[in-house]
Amino acid sequence: MTFEHDRIVLAPPDIDLERSPLRGADLGETFVLGTLNPGFTRLPNGNLLMMVRIAEALREPIRGDHIHAIRWCPNEGFVTDAYELATVDASDPRKFRLLAHTSRVMALTSLSWLLPVELDAAAEKVVQVHYDKAIIPGASYQEYGIEDARISRIGDRWYMTTCSVSAERHSTTLYTSENGLDYVLQGVILDHQNKDMLFFEGMPAGKFHALTRPLGDLYFAYPPGSTYEAGPSINLASSPDGLHWKPADTPLIRPRRGSSSVLRIGGGAPPVLTPNGWLMLYHGVQPGTIVGTYRTFHAFLDSEMPSKVLAIDDEMPLLEPRPELSDPWSELSYLQGVVFTTGIVEDDHDYIVASGEDDLLCRITFIPKSVFEPAGS
User: Fold this and answer.
1) Mean pLDDT, to the nearest integer, of 7-14?
2) Rounded distance between C-alpha atoms, residue 17 and residue 73, angstroms
3) Is residue 376 part of a domain?
4) What's the structural domain count of the chain?
5) How far apart are CA 42 and CA 48, in angstroms?
6) Which pLDDT does position 1 carry in this prediction?
7) For the chain, what is the radius of gyration of the CA atoms?
8) What is the dihedral of CA 131, 184, 74, 77, to 10 degrees?
9) What is the 3-state secondary structure (H, E, C) of the chain?
């Protein structure tokens, strides 16, 4: 689908690296690899907040016969680690694989931190970039950075999940806020690799609920006649306090054989309550490019029993990558074919949706509520 109000609102040149939290560290020259995958919410003043992932990378990660990774150290701050080129696979400019390990072990040539960017109420322009409120690693389990915020407002409090990356674990961490702008780290809430945990914006049956997406290196096959494809699935979990989580015993949404989401699926924007149930936007990936083509799909879950899927459309995407939107920044591009939705805010007649475009840009799309109304209503 295409929508009238669909535009890029933030790009790497908009970031002032003189105000980066990495400034002052002995890293060599850095640049903004991407401004992407923003958490999204409305502030008490009516303005909109994007919590933008800033991927800050080494300009020259390879120096001599070594390649360097950025890491945060509790005692030293931001540092670089050197690895012999002969011992790694450096074909991906964003990361490299250490070949001496039996397991798949990676290091990063960039490090991600989170930057609050305030938009006006109509999402037309940036009104303030809150460099003083940037979120940077603060614990050893975040040594390789903080990625892909999702923000949900529940009552009078904001809950922000992030992916924290380290040699210790690849975990989901929680931040909370009393005003939507200043966040306090609450710690690890999922202790396994899980890229897409997001809280429902409400409490079905009086409990916190969240979508999760556990990852692994091994999946077991469905029977030959099954409609499902083995791989990561979107699951459901509940909690009495937002800190301690009980996974549901059955998966919620699984990749379906023959669909346009067969390669991978995962949660996108936090589910919001509508007259048709909980609206969830999620990403589906189809093979075809280096990482596959990422699109945004949607489903509805029962308002009282969110484990019940009322409707799902895994064929007709809501959002697709739009090269014409990212073309002005084509010289900065290192990836194509990706729209990765990470936030949603309700407006009068629309849902305002925030996404990352090509792991490079922040995209805002106004989707009319009528798109989700049953035919003939």
Assistant:
1) 98
2) 20
3) no
4) 1
5) 4
6) 82
7) 20
8) 0
9) CCCCCEEEEECHHHCCHHHCCCCCCCCCCEEEEEEEEEEEEECCCCCEEEEEEEEEEECCCEECCEEEEEEEECCCEEEEEEEEHHHEECCCCCEEEECCCCCCCEEECEEEEEEEEEECCCCCCEEEECHHHCECCCCHHHCCEEEEEEEEEECCEEEEEEEEECCCCEEEEEEEECCCCCEEEEEEEECCCECCCEECCCCHHHCEEEEECECCCCCCCCCCCCCECCCCCEEEEEECCCCCCEECCCCCECCECCCCCCCEEEEEEEEEEECCEEEEEEEEEECCCCCCEEEEEEEEECCCCCCCEEEEECCCCCECCCHHHHHHHHHHCCCCCEEEEEEEEECCCEEEEEEEECCCEEEEEEEEHHHHCCCCC
Q: The domain spanning residue 302 has which CATH number? A: 2.115.10.20
Residue 93 lies in a domain: yes
As a whole number, the mean pLDDT across the chain is: 95
Scanning the structure block, which residue is given the tokens 């008490």? Answer: 44
278 within domain boundaries:
yes
Residue with the two structure tokens 């791989």: 231
pTM above 0.70, yes or no: yes
**Assigned domain for 1 exists:** no
